[in-house]
Amino acid sequence: MELSLNTILSPNRSHCIATIICAMVLMVILGGSIGYGHELVAGVGTQTTFTIRDGQVTMLFNLGWSVPAGFPVLQSLDHDGDDRVEEEEWRPYLVSRIEALLKQVDLRINGHPIALELILVEEEGLQGSVRPRPFDAYYTLRGQLPAELSETSPWGGGWWLHWQDNTFRDQTSSQFTWIPLSDHDPDLSFLILEPEPQAIEDQGAFYRTPGRKSTIYFYRGTTSFDPFSQQPPSVSDLAALTAASEVASPNLDQENAASPRDALIPRRPTNNDSRQGEPDSTSEEEQIGGIVATILEGKAPLWEVLLALLLAVVYGAGHALGPGHGKTMVAAYLVGSRGRVRDAVILGMVVTIAHTASIFLLGLLLLALIEASADKASSATYQNWLTTIFSFASGMLLVIFGIFLTYRRWQVARGHSHSHSHDHSHGHSHDHSHGHGHDHSHVPDKWGTHGEVRLRDLVTLGLSGGIVPCPAGFTIMLVAAHFQALLLGLVVLGFFSLGLGLMLIGIGCLLVIGKEGLLDRVGSSMQRRVFQYAPVVSALLVSGVGLWFCYDSLSQGQESIAQMLKALAMKLEG
Question: Which among 128, 339, 473, 503 could disulfide-bond with 343, CB atoms 3.0 to 4.6 Å apart, if both were Cys?
């Protein structure tokens, strides 16, 4: 027996239909659009803060790791295998990292290279248990300023700071420069000349600029330039302004300096963006990683394990409401076909199985790439490569499937239309021969044959839309590998995907039920036109979703694609 509104709705059908349709629309809207399944996560990032005081330039260099980049690093630092990273394990690593990175940066003031001395190494979130989490390293470095340019110099007085960050060009990364409004010499002001004013962000106590290059002019005087001005002043204007400045600006941070050490070390940016590539709250990978660790450690009581598995299901359901994951694909197919509740269930199950299998197999490939890599932080780069490739592949499969489906349904729709035209022109001549009790109405049985749902179509569509991997799934595999329990990790991944599948099935059922109720309210003539062409339109929408997946995977993954091509070229060169 097929489930329809006629069997489950109360007498107040119009109200219930409206409620279901509104709920269906809200689910699709809140769950995201047809966009890319997952944003490419940040791997590693550098943030640099400059302070000029007492004839010295002090640089606070922040090196941050996101969850996908950081977890393999934590694993590699746990030399004694106690699932903890202690200071004697992380400090040598951080010192070696900054020594290597300093060879890839260039700091010049007034054209002179600045030799930097390492003063202090600090960490945040690195020490402790091996768990999926982001963490940071903070390096304080100092160098001597060259002689200050005179006011009659062609460049004007003061110091011209040029910064070039060439680190992590072959990895997924981000770079920022921070300039504090205070903390400099009391009579010193500054102007950011590079990058463009449109890129400068006012963060309150700091200005922040994105990118690998920065040019900052420090000058003596209180007259300030608007950093957001479209046209920076000319060199002659700067020289004239510097020469005319006589009043020193107050040191806004002087009363807050707790010690001489604090006066020499710039304050860390307090903005939430100081964490590389991470949202303000706990990230998805961090949450699901904690759930997996609870299960795989084997130390939790049974009720905690069951609760963790339940949380994995709930988290998977919430994960399905994020952008992508086939919601629009499911909607496009089921709305334009003679889809039933059981078809929505089958399609959701196929998407779930494909999603689980793709994550597990690609996770094994990711683990192999990490094992072969010298820099464990490159795991995020490999992860983005796999996501980009399979997001594009998913889109292409959807495009091809949609084209074939459109062609098949168009042929059937045309034949169905011709059949109705033939019946209409000859219908009156046959009425007398069918008056003996046979009902030969020429109104189609709703969808006719061209809206028929075929199992192979459901399987093809589900496989095409389900192969897009996700960061949370990769995290499950990484944590399972750390505890040497890949099979148990597959079980957790299955529960996670179960929640995702249940949500997709629920959305599909709402679409099917809402569609039936809506069509029950329209007249038979309108039904005939809708039934005739809706399957063709829905097939075109499937291809449209695929095209958007292809476009978005290429646009979002431009950096990853460039890195892949560069790595391939280096491999071919030997």
Answer: 339
